[in-house]
Predict the 3D structure of the following.
Amino acid sequence: MTGKFITIEGSEGVGKSTNIEFISNYLKSKDITTIETREPGGTKTAEEIRRVLLNTEGETVPEIAELLLFFAARSFHIENLIKPAINQGHYVICDRFSDATIAYQGYGRGFDVKDINIIAAWVQKKLQPDLTILLDAPAEIGMQRAKNRGSIDRMETEDISFYERVRQGYLELANEHKDRFVVIDASQSLKLVQAEILFHLDRLLE
Ligand code: T5A
């Protein structure tokens, strides 16, 4: 039995962590073994890279180093956690994956998406999510929720226009990859967001 790979995407504060817990509990209620993980991070070394990427102190992180470090962390994550778990029949639920690099480093920072896709193909080989849930909300709503929740990291110090470009990037990706993306309006109440998530999970389980 092979497992499945579910990714949750969206800009800051749209509710990814909140809903990953919800998804995991639902799948567990169906006797499915789930692994919840996140990017950047997920393994010991990838979490060390996360600290470098999100730290607000110390040396400036050059944009190209940022891009490559996201993929370096992803490579550790794929080879040491994601692939082995899927091969054991588990469902891996991941808070962000390569779509985040296209949205943030591509649409946000301005790297050529074609170049990012070349690196993604090297790192991922054939691995692609079976389902990508995009939680979509205007950037101000997500940033406000993230700020209410507590401290901010290095990636949360950008101008609001950066997060609007990220949002636009995600919507374009969803339009290009309709086979695996679903878009949910994350400005709705959590109850409505979760009702839509259940609908898509049930379709995946059919
Ligand atoms: N990044 C990442 C890149 O630039 N490139 C990459 O390749 C990758 C992988 C990672 C940062 O790195 C960047 C993107 C990020 O800037 P992170 O901490 O993993 O950072 O991600 P964040 O988006 O910053 O995570 P957050 O924790 O801020 O947001 P979440 O998880 O989307 O939001 P969540 O669930 O914590 O919810 C925020 C608050 O809103 C409430 C929740 O209760 C919580 O208080 N909430 C709602 N309130 C009302 N209505 C709803 N529908 C709600 N849903 C949630």
User: Anything to note?
Assistant: The chain has one domain: 4-205. Residues 10, 12-18, 38-40, 70, 95-96, 100-101, 104-105, 145-146, 149, 155-156, 186, 189-190, 193 surround T5A (CB under 6 Å).
